[in-house]
Amino acid sequence: MPRISDATRAGRRQHILAAAWGCFARNGFQATSMDDVIAASGMSSSAVYRYFRGKDEIIEATVEVGLARLRDRFRAMAEQPVRPTPAEAVALIAGPIQGMSSGPEPDMTRIAMMSWAEVLRRPALRERSRALYGEALDHVTELARRWQEDGRLRPESDPRAVAAALFTLVQGMVVWNHLIDDVVVDVLLRGLSALGAAVADESPGP
Predict the structure, then answer these.
(1) Are residues 103 and 135 in the same domain?
(2) Distance from C-alpha of 68 to C-alpha of 16, rounded to nearest angstrom
(3) Do residues 162 and 151 both lie within one domain?
(4) Measured between alpha carbons, how far is 14 from 61 in angstroms, rounded to an integer?
């Protein structure tokens, strides 16, 4: 029997994950069984178990893939020759969140909300998630540092603090989109502008 290439192996693994994501997005982690994933994948049970020993491994891979995508998105923003402005960055973050909840593909933001609970109850997954979140935050910090160099942030601004605020906004957008209403970029930017001005007015002087 010929050996399976690395590309084929990776493709099959991704196919299983995509099938699982569809199940997770519809029914959640707890209500999804391995039989559901196997049926959705269209593969034999032995083939699926060759790549994942059980649902826990699929959930762990799901969390890792989702966080890696978030990290890579921020890295791409920081490395673009023409960097997005702060307002454009907010729009670039908000757009996919809206698109995921209305498109034909599994809504990864729904899965992200479920993943937060899994991270809290699994120490090893929590540590891996902290590492990936840390890498993402480093890229946002670099983006904020570039904004400072471009004069879009005040010279005395703390790039890490700006990154923390923008990074926290991502989770807030996900919660807002699913539990309250659609994320409207213009409304969000107006609110951020007003809040930022109010906080600046209340901040103690040097």
Answers:
(1) yes
(2) 18
(3) yes
(4) 10
**HSE of 21, CA atoms in CB hemisphere, 13 A:** 23
Q: Residue 114 pLDDT more than 60?
A: yes
CATH of the domain at 189: 1.10.357
From CA 135, how far away is CA 70, in angstroms rounded? 10
Q: What is the pTM of this model?
A: 0.85
Q: In total, how many domains does the chain have? A: 2
Counts for the chain of helices (H) and strands (E), in that order: 9, 0
Mean pLDDT, all residues of the chain: 89
Closest-CA residue to 185 (of 73, 102, 93, 110): 93
Q: Both 47 and 60 in a single domain? A: no
Q: Which domain holds residue 10?
A: 1-53
Same domain, 118 and 61: yes
The model's pLDDT over 119-134, given as tens digits with 9 standing for 90+, comes to: 998 999 999 999 999 9
CB atoms within 10 A of CB 37: 24
